[in-house]
Write a structure and sequence with these properties.
Layout: E1 3-7, E2 12-15, E3 23-31, H1 37-55, E4 60-67, E5 70-78, E6 83-95, E7 98-108, E8 121-125, E9 129-130, H2 144-159, E10 163-167, H3 179-187, E11 192-200, E12 203-206, E13 215-228, E14 233-247, H4 258-262, H5 264-282, E15 289-297, E16 300-303, E17 316-319, E18 321-323, E19 333-334, E20 339-346, E21 351-354, E22 369-372
Parallel strand pairs: 8-10, 8-11, 9-11
Antiparallel strand pairs: 1-5, 2-3, 3-7, 4-5, 6-7, 11-13, 12-13, 13-14, 15-16, 15-22, 16-21, 17-20, 18-19, 18-22, 20-21
Helix pairs in contact: 2-5
Protein name: Lipoprotein
Organism: Arsukibacterium ikkense
Keywords: Signal
Length: about 375
């Protein structure tokens, strides 16, 4: 049996690290629309709870209920062994047409949570490609690709705690993800890459009367592809579609302005970008963190991952040497037996781990790849 929570939609929330075991403190904001203060308050609380569940490593599934194309409520389902036990509302403030709440929530993750849930795997976010350039002439949205990239990067930080995200200043197409490109990106320290392309910005039927300002139904489609660079695999692929009313008045603000993102069309696009961030989290949070041996000294080895990726001093990690084989399936193969190591020194992007005896590290070499907390090998 799954735990289901019905929540209102859309807000911006800041989430801190857990205060202590299973407790999370969150600050959330939501706009007050049509004077409905209670709905805005529930929106901030609800979205914060979803982020907390993701941060706790809970697998989340959600469904949106649409009425006349507008999201009315958001049903959040946690795994059957996960539980939100208590919520404490610490403060609430009202101002600038927004509600701000701060709360604490006690969340018990699933009993058999995956080992890689709290590790931050490197992900490269390439620029959102504006494939529908002909449609962008309506409203002069030629900078929407860059603006959407910035929005998506922020949402990945908010909703994808299993990732350490860096942004590229270029776009890539799925067909360009060759073995050589994958190996080069992996050698540069990336583990996943997210490709996105805006494939539809077209106008639909006119919604205004002849005496009114021109208004149209406008569509939006975003194609998404998530690649695992080490295994040369397409992990996730999906097209997201939405629509909203569009005003022909081009003075309403360009895509890099806050005014654009507060309009109905901008809000719908932003909802899609949030959904992308949440789905990427679901497809990466149980994947093991991959590191590379950078130095070996008797019974210790150094790896090129550290506190930024979620490792902590004193952690006991299982490492397995991985080597590349030119197999027909193109996948990477395990080699050698797993070794238990304890992290004895750590910095932001590096760590030293020690073994009980030097013999356990005798088969490792500088440049070897190791898997930390992997659930897939």
């Amino acid at each position: 049996m799954k735990l289901s929570i019905v929540i209102s939609a859309c807000c911006t929330v800041l989430l801190s690290a857990p205060l202590y075991a299973n407790w999370y403190e969150m600050t959330g904001q939501a706009p007050i629309e049509q004077g409905n203060i209670n709905q805005a308050k529930q929106a901030a609380i609800s979205d914060a709870l979803e982020r907390a569940a993701l941060f706790a490593g809970v697998r989340v599934t959600s469904q949106q209920q649409l009425v006349a194309g507008i999201m009315q409520q958001h049903q959040l389902s946690l795994d059957s062994s996960s539980e939100i036990r208590e919520i404490r509302l610490l403060s609430e403030n009202y101002g600038n047409d927004r509600v701000t709440v701060t709360l604490q929530a006690e969340i018990l993750p699933q009993r058999q949570s995956c080992q890689g849930a709290m590790q931050k795997k490197p992900l490269l976010l390439t620029q959102v490609e504006l494939a529908a350039r002909r449609d962008a002439i309506h409203g002069q949205l030629f900078e929407l690709g860059q603006s959407a990239t910035s929005q998506l990067a922020r949402h990945l930080q908010d909703y994808s705690p299993a990732l350490s995200v860096s942004s590229a200043d270029y776009s890539l197409k799925p067909g360009q993800m060759t073995d050589n490109v994958n190996r080069q990106l992996f050698a540069d320290g990336q583990q996943f890459v997210l490709l996105t392309s805006i494939s539809d910005l077209s106008l639909g039927k006119r919604t205004s009367r002849f005496w009114q300002d021109d208004r149209w139904q406008r569509y939006f489609a975003l194609d998404v592809a998530l690649f695992d660079l080490f295994n040369n695999q397409l992990v996730y692929q999906q097209q997201y579609r939405t629509q909203a009313e569009w005003h022909s008045d081009t003075s309403a603000g360009s895509s890099h302005s806050q005014q654009f993102w507060q309009q109905a069309y901008g809000r719908k696009i932003d909802t899609v970008l949030k959904a992308v961030a949440k789905d990427v989290q679901q497809h990466t949070h149980c994947q093991g963190l991959l590191a590379q041996v950078s130095h070996i000294n008797q019974h210790q080895l150094a790896m090129n991952k550290g506190s930024r990726q979620g490792l902590k001093l004193g952690d006991t990690v299982t490492v397995m040497q991985i080597q590349r084989f030119a197999g027909k399936d193109g996948l990477q193969k395990l080699h050698k037996s797993p070794v238990q190591l304890k992290i004895t020194e750590i910095s932001t992007d590096n760590a030293w781990a020690s073994a009980s005896t030097p013999a356990l590290l005798s088969h490792l070499q500088i440049g070897d790849l190791i898997s930390i907390g992997s659930a897939r090998f």
